[in-house]
């Protein structure tokens, strides 16, 4: 479960160094989510995408097999009138 961090963690602090153009760099004092969380989220999304691709591939293969089956027309029309 994710919980919101206190506002002190999200305060924007002004950097002490300036670029040559004189722009002051700003950054968050603490990152909202850790690197580990981002990596875990990336892995979960990748696994989900691969799983979805495999499901689509299996469905396409089964559809092809059913269409090529010699028994495909057997149950197409009902013999009961």
List the helices and strands and how they pair.
Elements: E1 12-18, E2 24-28, H1 35-68
Antiparallel strand pairs: 1-2
* Low-confidence blocks of residues: none
Number of helices: 1
Strands side by side in the biggest sheet: 1-2
Mean pLDDT rating? 67
Question: How would a crystallographer describe the biggest sheet?
Answer: 2 strands, antiparallel
Intertermini distance: 59 Å
Instruction: Supply the number of structural domains.
Output: 1
Helix content percent band = 40-55%
Structural class: alpha+beta
Q: How many strands?
A: 2
Which descriptor suits the 3D outline?
Answer: rod-shaped
What is the rounded Rg? 28 Å
Order of helices and strands: EEH
Percentage of residues in strands: 5-15%
Written overview of the protein:
The protein has 81 residues and is of the alpha+beta class. It has one domain. It is 42% helix and 15% strand. The protein has a two-stranded antiparallel ribbon with strand order 1-2. The mean pLDDT is 67.
Task: Please supply descriptive tags for the structure shown above.
81 residues, alpha+beta, 42% helix, 1 helix, rod-shaped, two-stranded antiparallel ribbon, single chain
Give a brief description.
This protein has one helix at 35-68, and strands at residues 12-18, 24-28.
């Amino acid at each position: 479960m994710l919980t919101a961090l206190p506002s002190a963690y999200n305060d924007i602090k002004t950097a002490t160094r300036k670029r040559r153009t004189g722009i002051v760099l700003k950054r968050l004092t603490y990152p909202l989510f850790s690197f580990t969380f981002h990596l875990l989220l990336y892995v979960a999304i990748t696994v989900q995408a691969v799983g979805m691709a495999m499901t689509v591939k299996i469905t396409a293969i089964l559809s092809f097999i059913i269409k090529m089956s010699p028994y495909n027309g057997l149950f197409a029309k009902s013999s009961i009138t």
